[in-house]
Write a structure and sequence with these properties.
The chain has a single domain (37-211), classed as Rossmann fold (3-Layer(aba) Sandwich), CATH 3.40.50.410. The protein is 48% helix and 16% strand. The protein contains eight helices and six strands; from the N terminus they run H-E-H-E-E-H-H-E-H-E-H-E-H-H. Strand 4, helix 5 and strand 5 form a beta-alpha-beta unit.
């Protein structure tokens, strides 16, 4: 839970965005032939995130649309809020199901539970491979070394975590960067005024999870903007 002084004020720099996109492009993805990509969409639903929760509801729907031509994507919603409240939905390929679930969530004051998100991702991928984890949050109130241990497990399992940081909390920035490095993922900051950029970045990760780097290259060519930076980093294949 972050105070009002932690709310975002500035947009991410173009350098940060390009660094993030380069890391996505360099991340291997393993989607067996005939299988759908699987992505865990995890969010901090503590009180400080209420102003942008509705925005997240709209952004997730676009991820399904962008991956439809690739055979689709299975997404699982996970979130934490309040006192020890951690929830994970069933896997779904329908944006309506996820939107309905998110619309029924009210953000509640509480401390972060990022370790639960990471442990859940480990358990899920041991049952059936998870291709990527997206996490959206604004602060971190846990032991970084404990988080690092679980992140290392995800790294060994080949599950990259892409962390989107709302605002400029210094401790969160340090921790998120560490988690991204340990899992082979990436970390990027955004604010309430960069909804379009966040949408494009989320869609890029979704396309990557569903179809690999080649699909991401095609997405970059069609969409342009910041996403085009990915194409220059691709060497073909998944």
């Amino acid at each position: 839970m972050a105070g009002n002084d932690k709310l975002p004020t500035n947009t991410s720099s173009s350098t940060e965005l390009q660094d993030f996109l380069r890391k996505v492009a360099c991340t291997p993805v393993r989607v067996p032939a005939g299988d759908r990509g699987r992505l865990i969409f995890a969010l901090d639903a503590t009180a400080s995130r209420q102003p942008t929760w509705d925005q997240a509801c709209h952004l997730q729907a676009a991820m399904f649309d962008e991956t439809a031509s690739l055979g689709g994507l299975d997404i699982q919603l996970a979130y934490y809020r309040g006192f020890m409240d951690f929830q994970a939905s069933d896997w779904t390929s329908r944006s309506q199901d996820l939107t309905r679930r998110m619309s029924g969530v009210a953000c509640l004051a509480g401390e972060t539970q990022i370790e639960k998100v990471l442990r859940h991702a480990v358990a899920e991928t041991k049952r059936k491979r998870v291709n990527a984890v997206v996490f959206v949050g604004d602060c971190m109130e846990e032991d970084v070394d404990r988080l690092g241990k679980v992140a290392g497990e995800l790294g060994l399992l080949g599950v990259p975590v892409f962390l989107f940081q709302e605002g400029h909390d210094v401790l969160a920035e340090f921790a998120f960067a560490q988690l991204a490095r340990l899992t082979g993922g990436a970390h990027c900051r955004f604010d309430a005024g960069s909804a379009k950029t966040l949408r494009d970045l989320l869609n890029a990760v979704a396309v990557f999870a569903a179809g690999g780097r080649k699909a991401l290259e095609n997405f970059a060519t069609a969409r342009g903007g910041a996403i085009i930076q990915i194409a220059n980093q691709m060497k073909g294949g998944r």
